[in-house]
Amino acid sequence: MDEKQQADALNAALAEEIPEIKAPPATSIELLRGVFNKETNSWESTAYVRELNGFDEEALAALDNQNVVYAEYMSVLLKRAVVSIGSFSVKDDPTIIDNLIIGDRDLLFLKIVEVTYGVNRQYQVSCGSCKAMNDIVVPMNEFENREVAHDPHMPLEATLSDGTKVRMRLPNGLDSQVVAKKAKSTAEQNTLMLARCVEFPVMANPQQWAKELGMKDRNELVRILMESQPGPEVGEVNAQCATCGLDLNIVLDWASLLFG
Ligand SMILES: [Zn+2]
Q: How far is the CA of 120 from the centre of ligand 1 (A)?
């Protein structure tokens, strides 16, 4: 143990002995896939994040009027507040954030919100029926993960109608940014996403290939790309009105999580 580890162990022991003092949330999180280390030929998945501060708030606010798409905004946020993933420092190589699968980015985002505001985020919701105000507490670490059969460490495999085998990788943050910026329709989004994610067969012009595919094959490949992405499902939260007992539906998005 070095000095820092000893100090951390001591602090942890002290925190355990004094239950009335709430320990801040741990700053590490296990990712679903993580980053591949070519030197050790292995996946590294323990990430560390830090809380957002005033510098971050100003940097994010500066993006507001710049026509920035969601995936870009998220990249700026993650590149600031994710400290490291495995042995990789984000400061030294910010591109590791762009190469993370979307599920891992969502997990990191929720962890940053948790470290910044505490694990329980509180929302004021008025009841649609009796109009009473309710304080709803939403734990940031209890969003359900999508049930995905695919192992995120493995490539995606599919067979086209003519028997051709196709291998793809899961979409990452950079794919989302490029697609959101360049594509003007869902069809263009699908073309770009397929062209970026196909790894086999290797071809000179994957966009041409994606357009030449039959629509049935295209739909099937896009479905595989979307349905194989693991990650937390952020969306509806169900609660009951404290006054009349009726169900309250709260729809959360990244902005309400970040700014409340
Ligand atoms: Zn009510």
A: 22
Ligand 1 centroid, distance to 245 Cα (angstroms): 6
| Number of other CB atoms surrounding residue 83 within 10 Å | 14
Q: Give 248 Cα–ligand 1 centroid separation in angstroms.
A: 8
What six digits make up the tokens of 230? 């693991």
- Measured in Å, residue 144 CA sits from the centre of ligand 1 at 26
The pTM of the whole model exceeds 0.90: no
Distance 157 CA to ligand 1 centre (A): 49
> Which residues, 6 or more positions from 55, have their beta carbon under 8 angstroms from its beta carbon?
none
pLDDT digits (tens, 9 = 90+) for 47-101: 999 999 999 999 999 998 888 989 999 999 999 999 999 999 999 999 999 999 9
SS3 for 3-72 is HHHHHHHHHHHHHHHCCCCCCCCCCEEEEEEEEEECCCCEEEEEEEECCCCHHHHHHHHCCCCCCCCHHH
**How many other CB atoms are found less than 10 A from the CB of residue 125?**
16
How far is Cα 160 from Cα 212, in angstroms, rounded to an integer? 12
- 114 Cα: distance to centroid of ligand 1 (angstroms): 28
Taking the CA atoms of 85, 89, 90 and 93 in sequence, report the sign of the dihedral they define. negative
Q: What number of CA atoms fall less than 13 Å from residue 33's CA on the CB side?
A: 27
